[in-house]
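Project outcomes to date are best conveyed with an example. Our students and postdoctoral researchers have been running inverse folding experiments weekly, and each run begins with a structure described purely in tokens. The record below, which covers 209 residues, was selected by the lab manager from last quarter's runs and is presented without edits.
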């Protein structure tokens, strides 16, 4: 194997540097806006609802718990959902839906779960494995109904994740995920497919009282 002397190596590197410098366009870069996120428009609830709507999902603002229960019942009836699963026993009784897993998640029409936090700026929902729904009922059913309150609303994702850290301390859940609208992909021939890796619809019923 031919060895390259230090002088030859430096000569070659020097030529590469001079060639690279000759190809660099001299551009005067003006200051750029380093703000990552836009400011919040209106209240946190209004911003969250608008952002969620912009990505094809829906936020239902509820002034009272009774109004939320009524809206969810009407939603279930309008959608003709026959197999709705809610792991919260008390909430399931109020809605008159199943609180017992049938054993086959794929047969469920919709799930009703809680969440850890909501992100107003992106319309995102933070969930974890600690919730009564675990992991699977945020993913398997074609329709995901999420119940949350205004106390769980945060402006940005960093705020929401910091709140989760403060809540659990060093005992963080084994699974924390961020849901931003319904599952979608355009991997195959750039054709948008809904529900490819999760629910086709996401609906958040947000209690504002």
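After processing, the design step wrote out the following sequence:
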């Amino acid at each position: 194997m031919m060895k390259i002397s230090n002088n030859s190596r430096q000569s070659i590197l020097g030529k590469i540097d001079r060639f690279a410098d000759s190809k660099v366009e001299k551009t005067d870069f003006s200051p750029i806006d380093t703000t990552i996120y836009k400011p919040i428009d209106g209240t946190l609830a209004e911003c969250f609802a608008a952002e969620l709507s912009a990505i094809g999902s829906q936020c239902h603002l509820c002034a009272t718990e009774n109004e939320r229960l009524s809206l969810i019942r009407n939603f279930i009836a309008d959608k003709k959902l026959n197999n709705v699963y809610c792991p919260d026993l008390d909430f399931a009784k109020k809605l008159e839906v199943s609180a017992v897993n049938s054993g086959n998640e794929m047969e469920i029409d919709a799930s009703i779960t809680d969440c850890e936090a909501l992100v107003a700026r992106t319309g995102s929902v933070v969930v974890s494995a600690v919730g009564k729904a675990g992991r699977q009922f945020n993913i398997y059913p074609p329709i995901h109904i999420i119940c949350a309150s205004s106390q769980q609303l945060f402006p940005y994702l960093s705020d929401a994740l910091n709140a989760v850290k403060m809540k659990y301390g060093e005992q963080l859940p084994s699974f924390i995920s961020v849901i931003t609208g319904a599952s979608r992909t355009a991997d195959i021939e750039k054709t948008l497919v809904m529900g490819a890796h999760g629910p086709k619809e996401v609906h958040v019923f947000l209690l504002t009282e």
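The chain is about 30% helix and 20% strand. The chain has one domain: 44-207. The training component of this project remains on track.
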